[in-house]
Specification:
Layout (H helix, E strand, L loop, with lengths): L18 H34 L6 H10 L15 E5 L3 E3 L2 E10 L6 E9 L5 E4 L6 E3 L3
Antiparallel strand pairs: 1-3, 2-3, 3-4, 4-5, 5-6
Length: 142
């Protein structure tokens, strides 16, 4: 017959460590990590925005935005071999923001058609069209 062996375990009474100091230090490190992560995300978003929407400096930049954002190439009414003229007009301030109005004229002499004006915002190079019913600027391509 087998005898059950009982094991005895001794517990020593120890003084409780000050867990509040440890948790405060841990919390402080966690907050620092979170703040650094948020700062990195904000900086990355700002850099991304400045790359995607560079500031328009002058009329040439406004004209380049018309080409670069596909205003002409994405217009189904303008054929590939159609002659195109681009006129950048005087800068306008609309609702406190500066824009270059840009007219695109496509077609041969005598059969030209005017597209636009497209409004290139200086602050971020986004392109807008003026809504014919409300007169408000609406983002191009949306």
């Amino acid at each position: 017959m087998k005898k059950n062996k009982h094991h005895s375990v001794e517990f020593k009474r120890t003084e409780a460590k000050d867990t509040s100091a440890l948790s405060k230090a841990k919390m402080k490190k966690t907050i620092i990590v979170v703040v650094v992560i948020i700062a990195v995300i904000v900086v990355a978003a700002l850099i991304d925005h400045s790359i995607r929407h560079p500031r328009t400096q002058d009329e040439t930049d406004a004209m380049n935005q018309i080409f670069g954002q596909g205003v002409i190439s994405n217009n189904p009414e303008i054929e590939y071999d159609t002659p195109v003229t681009i006129n950048v007009l005087e800068m306008e301030t609309i609702n406190g923001k500066d824009y270059y109005p840009v007219e695109v004229i496509a077609g041969d002499e005598g059969s030209e058609k005017l597209y636009g004006p497209y409004y290139v915002r200086l602050s971020d190079s986004r392109i807008f069209l003026k809504d014919s019913t409300t007169g408000q600027l609406v983002p191009y391509g949306v």
